[in-house]
Design brief:
Length: about 550
């Protein structure tokens, strides 16, 4: 087998390793065609471990290129090889890729089955990269299933693993996935009449998209940058900052030598949509026509045509709107027809892979097992992967029945950015794990310690009053300050600030949490390394 007509044959073992590394680098930089060329060379070799990894990469390339039938057919061959050699890490990534493909092609039940398998196999493999890939793919699948809260949970977990691994590409992608999910939640909040919540979610999405842009620019990853740029423009327009959204595009110069048609199409469509939101209909039409002309697929052309028809209509050009809508309708029919044909081919591949269909009773048992596994998966989503503590989602569940008779402490590491900047993010992670242990050991069995987010923790104290809660908070603060942090890093000292609120202050748990947050920042403003409770609140 040759690779893309290059005539290359599989070189020596060390050379194959290098080729596979180069193929992975091309894939990470959103160049699946170049990745395929090199991965095919490695897949033609004799080393089963490298072959399994190369085949796994080829499956992922097919998925990126929207070649779902080819992806699933090759996945069957790759899985057979992984099972034979016991490569659980590659097996997990393959199941995750198959799950993503099935979600895209309209089979959510089978997609979730594959995702659950991927997470279980990745966990058993002990390979953090496989766990990160499976978790990140689960986030994407949940996004397409419109389960945005769960998507964010899995995105956070995948980003945490990526940071531990030093995988900035995945970290940036997961941050932007959270931005997309938060924007969907913002739109839902606005539709429900919750404008305050909608704006807060939009601001959070903007912050995440900006962070994703910074990461992409640092890495020179133009596809990720333009996707995050478009998402930021959308969230700014949503918040009414349309001129700021338009300014985002002034510094971007399309480079046909570096930018694929998909990048160009996405950028022009985002720019046109921002102009549309700003009421600049003529500019919107120019950008959207260019996007339609550059579209690399019928799906992309369909999206561009729909937006262009809207622009023509708003501009008062009803003939242009009608003609473009007809084009959109024709493209929609073609896309639907091709999807139906593809679904038939996928069904054949799935049938071959499955060996045989179970009887009705067995199918019901499979669905019940799937539901059970899904519950277990959601249970796992309540745990923070870095510290082993419960996470914010679990805290929300604990607060659901109210906080009467409880107290809540919000604990934040003072000058944590300085710890990361002066000692490294790895040391910062160790500080968070050590602090989690200190908080857990200092609390009672019926208290709950939660990683609230970033360097912030929450402690839910059961059956306590103001005096006892204040005493506990001061004890925690003092223990942290007195701890020997030099065991983590030479010259390191860590303190925390704590905001305290009583559950009886309001019947609404979010109000109680908000007051604890206000008092935490009051403690920060007062000089840090201190506790602020109800008596100190403004």
């Amino acid at each position: 087998m040759t690779a893309g007509g290059t005539g290359l044959r599989l070189p020596a073992q060390s050379r194959a390793d290098v080729l596979l590394g180069q193929a992975i680098a091309h894939y990470d930089r959103s160049d699946p065609v170049a990745a395929q060329e090199l991965a095919k060379v490695v897949a033609d070799g004799d080393d089963p471990v490298l072959r399994a990894r190369a085949l796994t990469l080829l499956v992922r390339c097919h998925l990126v290129l929207d070649e779902h039938v080819e992806a699933l057919a090759l996945a069957r061959e790759a899985l057979d090889l992984c099972w034979r050699i016991g490569d659980r890490a590659s097996e997990a990534i393959l199941h995750a890729t198959v799950g993503r493909s099935l979600a895209f092609t309209g089979d959510p039940v089978s997609a979730m089955e594959e995702i659950i398998t991927a997470l279980e196999v990745a966990d058993a493999s002990g390979d953090l990269t496989a766990r990160m890939t499976a978790t990140g793919t689960a986030a994407t699948v949940y996004y397409y299933l419109e389960q945005f809260d769960v998507c964010i949970e899995f995105s956070e977990r995948a980003a945490e693993m990526a940071r531990i691994l030093g995988d900035e590409v995945t970290n940036g992608a997961m941050i932007d996935t959270m931005a997309c999910a938060n924007m969907c939640l913002a739109e839902a909040a606005r539709s429900a009449g919750d404008e305050t919540g909608a704006r807060a979610l939009s601001v959070l999405a903007q912050s995440q998209s900006r962070e994703a842009i910074v990461v992409a620019r640092r890495l020179g990853h133009r596809r990720h940058e333009v996707i995050a740029l478009g998402n930021l423009a959308e969230s700014l327009s949503f918040s009414g900052h349309v001129e700021e959204a338009l300014e985002l595009f002034t510094g971007w110069q399309i480079d046909p030598a570096r930018d694929s048609p998909s990048i160009i199409t996405h950028l022009l469509d985002s720019q046109g949509s921002a102009c549309l939101a700003a009421g600049r209909y003529e500019e919107a039409i120019v950008h959207l026509r260019a996007s339609l002309a550059a579209a690399e697929s019928k799906n992309s052309a369909m999206v561009a045509a729909e937006h262009l028809a809207d622009a023509y209509e708003r501009h008062g050009d009803l003939r242009g709107a009608l003609d473009t809508y007809k084009m959109f309708h024709a493209l929609s029919k073609e896309v639907a027809s091709e999807a139906a044909k593809r679904s038939g081919s996928i069904a054949v591949v799935r049938l071959e892979t499955a060996q045989a269909k179970a009887a009705a009773e067995e199918e019901r048992a499979r669905v019940e097992a799937l539901q059970h596994a899904n519950k277990e998966l959601l249970r796992q989503s309540l745990e923070d992967p870095l510290t082993g503590l419960a996470n914010r989602r679990h805290l929300d569940e604990l607060m659901a029945d109210g906080l009467a008779g409880h107290a809540i402490l919000l604990v934040d590491v003072d000058h944590f950015k300085r710890v990361n900047d002066e000692h490294s993010h790895l040391i910062g992670d160790r500080v968070l794990r050590r602090l989690a242990g200190l908080l857990r050991s200092a609390c009672r069995g019926d208290d709950a310690v939660v990683r609230f987010g970033g360097e912030e923790f929450a402690v839910l104290l059961a059956g306590t009053d103001l005096h006892d809660a204040t005493t506990t908070a001061q004890r925690l603060r003092a223990q942290v300050a007195a701890h020997d942090w030099t065991a983590v890093a030479q010259g390191l000292a860590v303190t925390v600030s704590i905001g305290l609120a009583l559950g009886d202050e309001s019947t609404d748990p979010t109000v109680v949490l908000g007051r604890a947050d206000e008092r935490l920042y009051a403690a920060k403003r007062a000089g840090r390394n201190r506790v602020h409770g109800p008596a100190e609140s403004p």
